Amino acid sequence: MALNNYMHPRNVYKTPPDFAKLAKIYPEFSSVTIMDVSGKVTIDFKDPHSLRILTKCLLKSDFGVDIEIPEDRLVPTLPLRLNYVLWIEDLLLAIKRNDNVWGIDIGTGACAIYPVLAATKNKWNMIGTETDPESLLKAQENIDRNNLSYFIKLSKNTTTSLVQYLLDSELGQRFDFCMCNPPFYSSIQELCESRNPSRHPPKNGFTGSPQELVTEGGELEFCRKLIDESKVYKDRIIFFTTMVGHKYNLKELLNDLASEGIKHTHTEFCQGRVTRWGLAWTYQDHDIYKLVPPRDKLRKKSLPIAYQLTELPNRPYEIETCSEKIKEILNELQIEKKILSKRGKSISMHIKALKNTWSHQRRKRRLLKRQEEQEAKRMRSDSSGVNESSQNESLEKLQRVVNSAININHNNNNGSILESQVTENNISACQEPILQAFLKIFKKDDAILCEIEYLDGNAGKEGLHQIVQYIKNNWK
Predict the structure, then answer these.
(1) What is the DSSP letter of 132?
(2) Whole-model pTM?
(3) Which regions are flagged for Basic and acidic residues bias (predicted)?
């Protein structure tokens, strides 16, 4: 389902662009358009070249700037970028900051898209930082071509810090905000496994270079590093902000800020079929949560499943013990897990299932036992002259039956029982998960609780309830 209804109310792209009109104005855009049988003008959104031309022409049409987007760099999605800028506008308007605004864009990229939008739309003064020399060169060319050097300065970051190196060199300069669109992934494999099949196939083609998409520790560690640096420079920047690509990372970052008593708020950036999240925090006197409250409450929220974990026989009733037991059960179900954080009284993890291994366990066991008994009976009734090859053939048949029984799956959409088409041999490194969830084990008073929140996946919330029931059934 398209999410345009949840886009920022001031975003001009709430109403989709008129491609036919755009094609008449820009011949280069006309060259990549397609007309369907109904006469509607569109483009191939899976073609990076078409995306590049579309973004270039929209920037010309709606913002009056001529931006060159390198073929080997990320094509910025304008509705998303504009959502972020508009949210920062909301933060600044809430504290009546609208004159002589100064901002920092961490990792500005080859297009310097955030500084360009901020400067052309709001006349904000921006400093864009970048570690990649080639992207920095292209960004400067774009700024010079559009005569934006009065508003936008670029700074090459040769350090491992995010804002420290800049603030140490810009002595005395105070900024209203910093913003960043951090690389979402910690590795190419994580990038490959990131999309779940419950969503429609990707509408847009893949663009971006490794340095734009991957960073050590992924976006969670990147954002935590920014939080750490913000503590040192809390008097130099009013609002620290970042985009977040994974909801489970947003939850962890919200916990990080809350645990240290740092005032914060967050929002959803909805556009097309994509949701991202914005996170902002401040050390100033502003009650940021009340001034700009979270926007994700506009849509129906998924309430977590919470229940108490009972004591295990002959094992201490501790967070670590319960965590190890849950890991054992998840391993039985072949559910992947990633520890997000360990605090004194809580452990958080992201869990991901590639196939349904938890549904209809009794049915699987009964079927397996029946097939084994039938096969054993048939083998006993065979004549004593059965040769070894026949026995091997029978064993192979039994193994196929066992594998078939194990792979019985539940189709959430219509409630029917289907035989899974997934086997160990065809699970590729880039297989999409059928369920992702956020799991937290924490101590409250003298009890240890487990809280599991559905994130996405076509197994749905029903699949998550089945996993919870499996954990309960196999706890002791």
Answers:
(1) -
(2) 0.69
(3) 369-381
